[in-house]
Amino acid sequence: MLTLDQVKSKSAKRLEGLLPAVHAAAVKLIERTYARGVPIIITQGLRTIEYQNELFAQGRTKPGPIVTNARGGKSFHNYGVAIDFALLLPDGRTCSWDMTRDGNGNKLKDWMEVVDEAKKLGFEWGGDWPHFKDNPHLQMTFGLTINDYAAGKRPAAPAKEDECEMKAADANLIIKRFLQPDWADAKKKGDAAGMQEANRLANVLREASGQPKQ
Ligand SMILES: [Zn+2]
């Protein structure tokens, strides 16, 4: 099984340059989905305007499929307030965009488990858009439009990191629903390492939500 550090390291580069509040929320998203048994990878974060223009040209004036409808300066990615994710498969190398996958076997679609956690952290999901659905896309725009950002406006009081803090009740719910059953399963099988790992993850969540370790 991939460790949380391994999963985090896969996305570290893509998190560079994000607005601090968005960065903090993205890290928490990686932690929380990991704790649910759904490791993810952030595949896109900040994009420069030049890079956005190159992407826009793809499928138009350059070969390749169309991947964006936004010109440089017209994507929230250009302002460090958007990320794209994919599922990270157990080999730690392969990404999946399969929205029906249920890798943790809890009868919920992994993709929507990620979306759920993202919304709790304050992200808006591109899959909710009525026209151009963008299922891997998450953004946190602080009430500003893309034209506001393009005109140089920025969030007046960037959301504080602690607004993204995990609440103790959320952490305890995840522990109860996912980690305690994992621990009990491991105990039944006499799998000491599994028990230890479930304990360790529970403590990661307890710490993230300001509770003492157990
Ligand atoms: Zn995106």
Entry summary:
With 214 residues, the protein is of the alpha+beta class. Helix content is 41%, strand content 9%. Residues 44, 77, 82, 84, 134, 137 line the site of zinc ion.
Describe the structure.
The chain is built from seven helices and five strands; from the N terminus they run ααβαββαββααα. The protein has helices at residues 4-11, 20-35, 49-57, 110-120, 146-150, 168-188, 192-208; strands at residues 40-44, 82-88, 95-96, 124-125, 137-139. Helix 2 (20-35) packs across helix 4 (110-120) and helix 6 (168-188) runs antiparallel to helix 7. Strand 2 and strand 3 form a beta hairpin. By secondary structure, it is α+β, with helices and mostly antiparallel strands. The longest helix has 21 residues, at 168-188. It folds into two domains: 4-159, Muramoyl-pentapeptide Carboxypeptidase, domain 2 (2-Layer Sandwich), CATH 3.30.1380; 168-208. Strands 1, 2, 3, 4 and 5 form a five-stranded antiparallel sheet that branches. The protein starts with a helix and ends in a 6-residue tail after the last helix. The model has no long low-confidence stretch (mean pLDDT 90). This is Peptidase M15C domain-containing protein. Residues 70-140 form the Peptidase M15C domain.
